[in-house]
Structures are given as structure tokens and as C-alpha cells.
């Protein structure tokens, strides 16, 4: 039976996980925040101020 791959850890500088957390996560969060901000009026129109579905 094949073994499962090793867990990724962001503790090791230079690893894929470290670089993803360090570089890509801030970019992703910035895009999410920007999208929410640009479309907030649409969200309020659809869901109301209380955001209840």
C-alpha cells in the first residue's frame, strides 16, 4: 500500500507552504476584500443591511 505524502509545513523557509503563506495569502485576501468592497452595494440590495438570507 502506498504511503501518504508528508504534511506541508509553513515553518520551513523556502518550502512551497512557506512561500504560499508568505506571498500568496496576502494577495488572495487583498483580492477578496477588494471584491467585497466593490460589490458591497449589490450585496446589500440582495441581502439587506442585516445580511439575512
From TrEMBL:
Recorded GO MF terms: hydrolase activity; metal ion binding; protein carboxyl O-methyltransferase activity
The protein's role, per its UniProt record: Metal-dependent phosphatase that shows phosphatase activity against several substrates, including fructose-1-phosphate and fructose-6-phosphate. Its preference for fructose-1-phosphate, a strong glycating agent that causes DNA damage rather than a canonical yeast metabolite, suggests a damage-control function in hexose phosphate metabolism. Has also been shown to have O-methyltransferase activity that methylates glutamate residues of target proteins to form gamma-glutamyl methyl ester residues. Possibly methylates PCNA, suggesting it is involved in the DNA damage response.
InterPro entries: ARMT1
The protein's name in its UniProt record: Sugar phosphate phosphatase
Gene3D superfamilies per record: 1.20.930.60
GO biological process: methylation
Cofactor: Mn(2+); Ni(2+)
Annotated keywords: Hydrolase, Manganese, Metal-binding, Methyltransferase, Transferase
Domain notes: Subfamily III proteins have a conserved RTxK motif about 40-50 residues from the C-terminus; the threonine may be replaced by serine or cysteine.
Lineage: Eukaryota, Metazoa, Chordata, Craniata, Vertebrata
Reactions catalysed according to its record: L-glutamyl-[protein] + S-adenosyl-L-methionine = [protein]-L-glutamate 5-O-methyl ester + S-adenosyl-L-homocysteine; beta-D-fructose 1-phosphate + H2O = D-fructose + phosphate; beta-D-fructose 6-phosphate = dihydroxyacetone + D-glyceraldehyde 3-phosphate
The enzyme's E.C. designation: 2.1.1.-, 3.1.3.-
Family affiliation: Belongs to the damage-control phosphatase family. Sugar phosphate phosphatase III subfamily.
